[in-house]
Amino acid sequence: MTEILWHGRGGQGAFTAARLAGCAYAMKSEDCYALAFPSFGPERRGAPIRAFTKLGNSGIGDRSEIEKADFSIFLDDTLYTESAFSELKEGGIIILNTKHDISRPGLYCIDADAIAVETLGIHITNTVMLGVLAAVMSGRDSEVITMGDIEKAVRLCLPAKIQDKNTAAAARAFEEAVSMKARRVQ
Amino acid sequence: MARQFISGNEAFASGIRLAKPHVISAYPITPQTVVVERLSEMVEDGSLRSEFIHVESEHSALSCAIGASSVGARAFTATSSQGLLYMAECLVYASGGRFPIVMMNANRSTALPWNIYGDQRDSLALLDCGWIQAYVKDAQEALDIALMSYYIAENERVSTPFMANLDGFVLTHTYEVVDVPESDRADLFLPPYETDNRLDLENPRNLAFSAGPEYNAAFKYKEHAGMMNAKQVITEAEARFERIFGRKYTGLIEEYRTEDAEYILITLGSIYPLACETADALRTEGVKAGIIRIRYMRPFPAVEIAEAVSGAKAAAVLEKDISFGNEGTVYTNVNSALHTAGVRTVTSDYIGGLGGKSISGNDIRHIYDRMMSGVSEVRFIGIDDRSGEGGDAS
Question: Does A30 touch chain B (CB under 8 A)?
């Protein structure tokens, strides 16, 4: 099972990202299962929220919050602290939306705000971070989400008038993340 | 069949769309709100032709459904927690009047302290109201029960209202894969509602009247008989459902690896799949673990539970409920069934998940440790353990 932990603030679309990731994987084939849910409770704009995506190749029985993630994704770098690493499985990866360049094993930094403003015209980075996730995930053996899967999920889950630009935002982020990943390998 | 990625609330709303109720009366309450929001959108966009009535309270929501049912209409409402308690007076009107209304309840804690998260104290407190009570394990079963509920409730041998319970948030708000049947298949499954128990200008009659001491018991006897008949009709509904949709359900209980089990956990709702995964893990360690899920609390599967538990060394109930001053209500019901059948298995009661507290695989393992130690006890998970004085709640 692959477990993805999303961190954001109310209004940034962290739960939508969790849901899109789950839908993207679940719609791949009959053998693909996913659960997606937010940290439950009242919602407030600007308040920290977490959201969860679990991907697997059989039904997923455990509906509890993720304690150790394969991928931990921060839509907002004000929520990121060193303790983020304690929420990772061994070999787990953090993806951080930030203007800073922090060099650390297991941490990918990307200026998702810049991509979002450029492609969507607004500081909402959820589909951008989904594109980054697809790039970071590619090449692993187990559960993988591709750009094609994301495109399908965007069509199924988002209102028609924002589908194209969100797909474009994810694709743009995917390309940037692929070249970033290549630079790190060198 | 369309594979969709939707929440428990959305799955239930999809099932209700397929059942085509004439009247939907609703008052929103967390975590039920999404089910009535989706239904109102379906009515708005024309994919569901129902009269959607937004009433001013839960008491009115069920009163409105009773009114609709009393003219022979198929009626739906949904609620949760304090809303369900506010409806309590009307619950017995619906069941006593033999109106086969379907209601979804999003299981949620009851006040005080105020809490919007899931446990099962709301519906279990109302077990005696004469409603069929089902507890589902996932979003697929939520959709399927939504459709089956009308078949069962409206059957003339049953004529009893139906409450379908979904664990608040962990089921209502979690998105997962659901097969949504086509409408024409659903029509094959569910016949139109036809009844004599209605107000009719051509054939005037009195409904919802008084019955004094002389006749009252006969009405209550028939109400009980209708509920008991539901056992058979549930089996019939599930056989028909499987023929048309290919998905199999197992009646009043669902069992996992109980055939040779020495230690059996009995629970209800969405914790069941995790309990099964934990049983698998325990089996690899040599513990003969099995799980029973109570799918229907009313009519109660007394015979089925006694049969499944008979032969086990110990059985434990895991429930999100406490009847203050006694024990968990599920446990009381289970013990009565075992005692009546002469099953001597040692039993215990574990109360957890109150106010939305997560129940983990480790919590379930801990219950198995206790079961294997041979004790009989009533314990609050995470509280009695912390104090180290397990006997406090017994």
Answer: yes
